[in-house]
Amino acid sequence: MSGNITGREYPPSRWGSRLAYFYLTRVPALLGVVLFLFPLAALAPASPLHALFENLFFLDWAGTLLTTVVALVLVWSLILTARIVLLNGELRFGVIQQIRQKDFQRWWWSLTLVVAAPAVAGQFFEKGEFQLSSAEIWHSALAVVAGVVFAYALVYGSLWLAILISPRGSQPDARSFPTIIRILKDFLAWANDHTVLPDWFTRWLMTCLVKLPADLQAGYIDNRPRLGEGHQNARDNPGYGLPWAGHWLALSFAFFTFALYFWIGAYKTAHLGETTSIPALAMVLFLLLNVNWILSFFAFFPDRFRIPLLIPLSVLAVFGTYFPSSDHYLSDSPWRHGIDHTSL
Predict the structure, then answer these.
(1) Nearest to 85 by CA among 166, 23, 31, 32
(2) Which pLDDT score is estimated for 5?
(3) Among 226, 261, 270, 342, which lies 20 to 30 A Cα-Cα from 72?
(4) How far apart are the C-alpha atoms of 275 and 203, rounded to whole Å?
(5) 275: left (phi over 0), alpha (psi -120 to 50) or beta
């Protein structure tokens, strides 16, 4: 099997393709390594980062709750962006397809908990240094549990919304999403049988997207007129000419995460100068979350042409300097007499 990208033939090499995937998934992979190793390096007594970053992990119960939610959401976003790359290896990047299973695997949740654990549990390993009481430890532990539940609800809600805004019947794999109770799977099945998109809009969107050049469709648009072609149960593809299911989910989840980010930003702006329960660690995790969405978006398109990610980032940085929002001004005013210089 060989891939054809813009006229170039790539020889069949399974090991070469596996190495290529390390490059193609570099953004979520590197951010996952940073998320896992940074708390360990910051809390290790012999680490040079210990004195500088240790206090990031000094959290109250509210800060623990928010940090848990953001850490789990961050890992889930890393999995989603890596999943899109892995499912489109042959179609988008011309490398041998490594996975074809589109189901949601249960081990993803285990991976999510493992990668997020150091950022969430760091405070408990420093309970002596932080002089935490037994009551504070229990409150933080309960906040972790509540954060896991809230993060799961956020992921489930984004999946349900992604199914509902996608074409009817185009997301049958969503039923494989791990759920605790049966009714949650039934809600996903109901969403797959319905859609909020009018038929005229779906047809119009399909008409526009199928006219795009092949390089803009590969990995983005489902170009299969029929599903199960050659089999007895072959049927028309309800998602033909529309974005792949993974992109609907990524779009929905990105919307939820950005909404959470802007809500916290609005809350901090409304309480400017006041002490809030939003810890600095949560904002660091939000930074990684935004970096993942932005860099993964910029990497997925040019990687087809083997264009380094540094090039679009450089272009963005250059053009960004011309936007007024990149400039910050300090207002000055005439000096008022009578002010006590000592108090200043």
Answers:
(1) 23
(2) 45
(3) 270
(4) 51
(5) beta
Question: How high is the pLDDT of residue 8?
Answer: 47
Question: Which has more confidence, 338 or 290?
Answer: 290
**Hey, where are the domains in the chain?**
3-196+245-326, 200-242
Pairing of strands 235-236, 8-10: unpaired
Q: How confident is the model at residue 336 (pLDDT cuts 50, 70, 90)?
A: low
Cβ of 108: how many Cβ atoms within 10 Å? 16
Distances (CA, A) of 147 to 33, 136, 152, 178, 201: 22, 16, 8, 18, 38
Model pTM score: 0.83
Amino acid code (one letter) for 260: L
Q: How far apart are CA 115 and CA 120, in angstroms?
A: 10
Q: What is the pLDDT of residue 344?
A: 45
CA angle 195, 198, 199 (to 5 degrees): 100
Q: How far apart are CA 318 and CA 266, in angstroms?
A: 28
Contact, 108 vs 64, CB < 8 A? no
φ and ψ at 130, to 5 degrees?
-85, -5
Query: What is the three-class DSSP state of 8?
Result: strand
From its phi and psi, is residue 6 left (phi > 0), alpha (psi between -120 and 50) or beta? left
- Calculate the alpha carbon distances from 87 to 58, 91, 95 in Å: 40, 8, 11
CA pair distance 264, 249, nearest whole angstrom: 23
Query: Using an 8 Å Cβ cutoff, are 298 and 313 in contact?
Result: yes
311-328 burial: b if 16+ Cβ within 10 Å, else e:
ebeeeeeeeeeeeeeeee
For position 324, what pLDDT does the model report? 64
Task: For the chain, give the mean pLDDT.
Answer: 82
Neighbours of 156 (CB within 10 A): 16
